[in-house]
Amino acid sequence: MNAKTALVTGGIGGIGTAICRRLSNDGMNVIAVHHPMENEHAAAWQAEQKAAGYDIAILGMDVSSPEECSTRLSQLLSDEGSVDILVNCAGITRDKSFKRMEDDHWYDVINVNLNSVYNVTRPLWDAMLENGFGRVVNISSVNGQRGQFGQANYSAAKAGMHGFTMAMAQEGATKGVTVNTVSPGYISTAMTEAIRDDIREAIIGGIPMGRMGTTEEIAGAVAYLVEEEAGYITGANIPINGGLYMS
Questions:
Q1: Would you say residue 241 lies in a domain?
Q2: Active site residues
Q3: Residue 192: inside a domain, yes or no?
Q4: Is residue 189 a part of any domain in this protein?
Q5: Residue 181, SS3?
Q6: Which domain holds residue 231?
Q7: How far apart are CA 163 and CA 167, in angstroms?
Q8: How many domains does the chain have?
Q9: What is the distance between the alpha carbons of residues 96 and 93, in angstroms, rounded to a whole number?
Q10: 95: helix, coil or strand?
Q11: Is the pTM of this model over 0.85?
Q12: CATH of the domain at 82
């Protein structure tokens, strides 16, 4: 059986890296998508992965551009034959209280975090339906479930991702294509490690498990959802937040 091909947007970030490594370990051909302005950083990242034993391809693509996604992914399908697994993990934050939020703060986050899910999924969707197999996993956030002060843009985008998941899950259900959401809580990454110590401790104090999650815990959930044995799970929102938010 040929190895499946997995495309991971935001693939060179903290959570994205763990997902790429896990899927690579599971025998998949993995392609990490990064912004074209990060070409140099992405090349260094790829070299680091190779040195650690991971053979991961990279693809520069602006996920907020529908035209660029259509062009690059059509070419990718032509080159690879199929993309079996898509993990929509690209995301940014532009935190401001709504009173102080500027138009760019809103639209930048919506374009990268939510519109990208359409832009990247659209060129790959029909081929998944035709092949009778596909796995789409959208990486949302606990703040898309509960909201967060100063994140009207981010919370709206992340909530929208799961709305997209539920609708697309119904469209793919009879064709062997599943669509699910994973909603991480606070995860230990370079970004969260850089938070001021007292603020970080206050965050951890509000988590019932008393710790932040690991990127590997997110990757483990994604790895399960993309397997054939998870074929009866679709339209779900998997919370991985240490009990911070329960529903």
A1: no
A2: 154
A3: yes
A4: yes
A5: strand
A6: 5-235
A7: 6
A8: 1
A9: 9
A10: coil
A11: yes
A12: 3.40.50.720
